[in-house]
Design goal:
Elements: E1 4-13, E2 17-22, E3 31-32, E4 34-37, H1 44-56, E5 65-71, E6 78-87, E7 103-108, H2 109-118, H3 125-141
Parallel strand pairs: 1-6
Antiparallel strand pairs: 1-2, 1-4, 2-3, 2-7, 5-6
C-alpha cells in the first residue's frame, strides 16, 4: 500500500462561519474546503497554498495558514497535515474550480457539528476524523469551550 501525503485546509470566515465543499459527482460527500496531495519535495505549506488557489481561487501567502495538526494514517492511507485559513470576505472572493468543486457552503460551526452528528453519512470519513481533531485542538486552547466532540 502506497502512503499518500496530503494537506487539508479548513477555511474559517470572520464571524465564526466555516466553509464546507462537495465534489462534482452525485455521490460526493461534504469535506474540507480545500485539500490536495503534497508533490515531490514541496513543503506542506506550499501544497496547502496551492490547494487553496486551485480549488477555491484564494490567494494565500506564506504565513497566512496555521498548521494545526499532522495526522498519521487512520481512516485512510494518508498522512494528513491539517491547516486553517481565515478568509476575509470583504477582500477575498471564491473562484471555484468547477472541474473539482461542485458546491461550497458557509455554515456556523455549531450547525456543522450538529449536522455531522445527525447525518454522518453525508460527510467524508476523513473529514469527520480531521474535524474531530480540529475541535479537540480548539477546545484545548479554550477557543471553543462550548463544543462537544461526537
Amino acid at each position: 500500500m502506497k502512503l499518500l501525503y496530503q494537506v487539508h485546509i479548513f477555511v474559517e470566515l470572520f464571524g465564526g462561519r466555516f466553509l464546507l465543499r462537495k465534489g462534482i459527482k452525485d455521490d460526493s460527500k461534504w469535506c474540507a474546503a480545500a485539500f490536495g496531495d503534497v508533490k515531490g519535495v514541496e513543503s506542506y505549506e506550499k501544497a496547502a497554498i496551492r490547494a487553496l488557489q486551485n480549488d477555491l481561487g484564494l490567494e494565500a501567502l506564506h504565513g497566512d495558514l496555521d498548521k494545526i495538526a499532522a495526522i498519521s494514517p487512520g481512516v485512510s492511507d494518508k498522512h494528513i497535515t491539517l491547516f486553517t485559513y481565515l478568509m476575509d470576505q470583504k477582500r477575498e472572493e471564491l473562484k471555484l474550480d468547477t472541474k473539482k468543486v461542485g458546491e461550497v457552503v458557509a455554515s456556523d460551526l455549531a450547525d456543522v457539528i450538529a449536522d455531522v452528528e445527525g447525518h454522518k453519512d453525508d460527510y467524508a470519513p476523513v473529514f469527520i476524523e480531521t474535524f474531530n481533531i480540529f475541535l479537540a485542538l480548539a477546545k484545548n486552547t479554550g477557543e471553543y469551550d462550548k463544543w462537544t466532540l461526537y
